[in-house]
Each structure stands twice: as C-alpha cells, then as structure tokens.
Specification:
alpha+beta, Aminopeptidase, 2 domains, 38% helix, 28% strand, globular
Amino acid sequence: MEIEIKPIDFLNATRNEWELYHSFRRKQHEEENPGDPVLEDDKEEVWMDSVYENFDVFTYYVTPRDNPNEMIALLRARYVSEGAPSYAGNEHIMRTLLYVLKDYRRQGIGRELLKIVTKLAQEHGKSLIMTGTSQEDGRKALKKLGAKEALATKDNRTNLDTIDWAMVKEWNEEGPQRSPDSKIEFYTKIPDEILEDYCKVYTEIMNQAPIDELDRGDIIITPEQWRKDEQRAEETGIKWITAMTREKDGTISGMTDVYYEPEHAHLLYQALTGVQEDYRGSGKGKWLKAAMLLKIQEEFPDITTITTGNATSNAPMIAINERLGFKPHKELYSCQVDTEKVVDYLKKK
C-alpha cells in the first residue's frame, strides 16, 4: 500500500496531530491490553512530556496516502541526552518503540520505519537498538532481525478476593517483630528533607533488579525528576502512595509504591518493590507488601485487581507474589540488536 511517513513533535503537536495519535494509541492499547482501561486523552498529553526529559527524541507516524486522517503506525526513537544523569553506560543505545496496527502488518511498513531507525542510530553513533514486545508478531519480526531476547518480564495480577488476608496480617505483624529497629512510613508526597536520600535508594534498588543479558547501564532517578512526576500525577488525578521501611538512624532500607486512577477504579498498579541488599533476609519485602495491601484495602475499597511486573529471573520477589496469589497475565520481551546487523538485514531484500 502507498503510505506517507511524517515527523511529529509532541511538545508542539497540533490539535489534529493529537487526535490522530489518540485514535491510534487507543487501537494499539486494545490490541496489546484488551479490556484494560486506557489513559484519558488529556492525561496522556500531560505525561507525554516525560518522554522527552533527558532524551533526544525522534517520532514519526504513518498514514495511508489516500487517508491522511488515519494513523496506522508509530515510531519513536530516542537516546539519553549527553550530560543527562543516566548517560554513562547508556550512551550507545537507541531505544525504539515501533508499532504497526494489526490490519496493516506484512505490507512493508515496519521495514520502512526500520530504515529510519538505523539511519538515526548511525547518524548519532548508537551501536545498539533496543526495543520490546509482548506480541508474537513482534517476537517473530525481531528474531528475523537477529535480535536477542535479553530480558523477559511478566505482568502478574492478583484479585483481592482471592488473597489470603490472614497471611497478609501475619506478615504485617511479623515485620516489626523481626525488625524491631525498623518502622514503616506512608507518603503521598516524599518530604523535602528525605527526597535526595529517597531517590538515591530508589535508584539503587531499581538497578539491583535483574536485567539478565540487557546491555544497559544504570537508570538514575533524580529529585528533580521525582518532583516532576509527582506534579504530573497531581495534575492528572493519579493517587501515588509510597511505603518505606526506615531504620533507627533514619536510613531508608526498603520501599514499594502504587498508582491508582479513580476513573479506573478496579485496577491498581504496583511499581517498584525492593529492599537494599544490606537489609535483606529479615522479611522486609513481605512486610512492605503486606502493609501496602492493607493500606489499599482501607483507602481504595473499589479495587479488585492489582498488577505488577517482575523479571522472570527475580525468584525472591516472584515467590512473595505467588504466595499473594499473583499469576502471570502477559509476558514482555526486552530485545536488543546491533545497529549494523539491522543495516545488513535491510540490504538483503
């Protein structure tokens, strides 16, 4: 089919471009996450700013030549900006999101977008292209390119009515017994006086999670970035709750955080859960999970389902989640391929 490929800058997008994008992303969301709630258009526009923070971003969309009012594919290629907090160890990576709607696949659209990706990667000195997929079509296409499935993560879900609440209460009671010098604190906004330490510990715990064969460096979370995300959450009505364990000297030893959107009342997202290495083995992970579950039960009575993600190699956290009734919902594969390998592939046909 004949297509048009056009660049788009979401920081300066026209109203028509936004409408094309929103229509596309809702279709993409239904293909990838059927039945799950999708973020409202105005909230998506608020959060889009975060895509550009500390990254150089290049975005293109595809329309049929005879129907310029329908977006059928999207490409976003971005790399960490020089001087950004996470630049070291990630300076070789071109992160890529490439999605073609199901009805338009196998017509050469993905190939044309790959040409753009490789050209950008070569122009900006990026030797590795990194992407992800949760669909079998995407896995097959990436294998043809010679991409390696470097990290597998699972979206795990549990229903609150199947949780063993007696066990949860037991974990919550055991926590302070096993760690008498620790306490749990809850926040909807991280206080200024601990924000720097919190971001440092969050960064450490996040980067201690398994990444298997993924060739990337650490991701650095800064206080400035955290405050911006808090502001976006407030602007969009998202309830963001953090629980942390703190020691007698004030050290933050572990944490977990959840996101709740009132419009999506049945579903709650649990993000990072982890304990610093020096404080593991004392049940703090179970304590944090249990305390947060009891908080959710109290604060959000409409919640029926909790979803969280884990690397399939993260055995300790998977063991805790399985005892709480979490079961695999879908799997995401993070893939990587040398830029030159993609260039060679494109030359073959």
